[in-house]
Every structure is written in C-alpha cells, then in structure tokens.
Amino acid sequence: MPELSPDEILMAEFEYIATSAFQANEDRSKATSFFVVSVGSLAATIFGAQIGGGTARFSQSLLFILSALFLLLSVFGVLTALQLARLRLAWHEAARAMNQIKRFYIHHLPQLEAAFRWQDETLPPPWKTDSLSFYMALEVALVTGMTFAASIFFFQHALSWKAWLWPLTLLAFLLAFSFTLWLYRSRLVKR
C-alpha cells in the first residue's frame, strides 16, 4: 500500500470545497438570475406600454397572447426550480463522494478526523430551509406565482370576466407559488 500523506488530502479537500461551493452557487445564481431578468424584462415592457390606459387599451387577441406568454414564463419558473433542486442534489452527491474518500483516509490516519467538518452525519441535508439554495428556490417560486397570476389576470380580461378578477388572480398566485415550492422540496426530501 502506498504511503498516505495527510497534507495531500487536506489540500485536495480544501480545493474541492472551494471549487464546489463556488461552482454550485454560480450555477444556481445564473439559473435564478436568468429567470428573474427574463420575467422582469417582459413585465417592464408590457406595463411600460400600457401606461395611462390600463388593459382597456389592449385588444382581446393581445390579452390572450399576454396570458400565454406569462403562462410560458410560469413553466420556465417551474423548470428553473427543478434545475435548482438538481444542482442542490449534485452538490450533495459530490460532498458524499468526498466523504467516502475522507473515511478511507480517516481509517488509515485517524488523527485526520478532527480536520474534517463535514462527514456523513454532519453533512447538511439536501432540503434545508436556511440555505442559499432554498432562498433562490423561494425567489423563483414567488416570481412563478406572479407570472401565473398575471397569466390568469390577462386571460380573465380577455374574456371580460371582471367579477372574480382579483380573487382568481390571488388564488392563481398561491397555487403556482405553493406548487413550485412543493415540487422543489419533493425532489430533495428522501422518499
């Protein structure tokens, strides 16, 4: 068996943690930012175009198109939440793989055990509400709720359904927000 060097494993562990943390946060940030900027750009364009006249200035066909666009953005929001969950799982699986290497070294060099903060029993779980990943998913769920609510709002206007305009719009927000967050969580919680 080759001689094991604790310096090498410690350096590799540090490099892995730094690279992994940076890449996971970078990927999650890119996915979330792209979605939020896309939604913000479309919303700013639409609301900027209607200043002064409200939805009354929009034709019925334009209202249906806006409804469809916001529905499509809602689908993108759900897909973004799934991407965030997958990135969180990929990070967790990489950390577990590194723990396997650490167990090997600890078995042969027991004095290394105190140097490693994360081991299998201390590794953060995939579903953790006090994490950057969760806050990004929460942001995506909120924006997805808003885009779905906007879709329902424009759809109701296109059909001239004014009686239940705000209750149905609010219900649409709550349903899309809850569904997106549930979907994110369901991918992370052990079955």
Question: What report would you give on this structure?
Answer:
The chain has 191 residues and is mainly α. The protein has four helices and no strands. The two termini are 40 Å apart. The mean pLDDT is 84.
Instruction: Specify the structural class.
Output: mainly alpha
Unreliable runs: none
Query: Helical element count?
Result: 4
Rg to the nearest angstrom? 23 Å
Shape: elongated
SSE order, one letter for each helix or strand: HHHH
Fraction of residues in helices?
A: over 70%
What value does the average pLDDT take?
A: 84
Query: How would you sum up the major sheet?
Result: none
Task: Determine the N-to-C terminus distance.
Answer: 40 Å
Topology, number of strands: 0
Domain tally:
1
Oligomeric nature of the chains: single chain
Provide a brief overview of the structure.
The protein has 4 helices and no strands. With 191 residues, it is mainly alpha-helical.
Annotate the secondary structure layout.
Layout: H1 6-49, H2 60-108, H3 132-158, H4 165-188
Descriptive key words:
mainly alpha; 0% strand; 191 residues; single chain
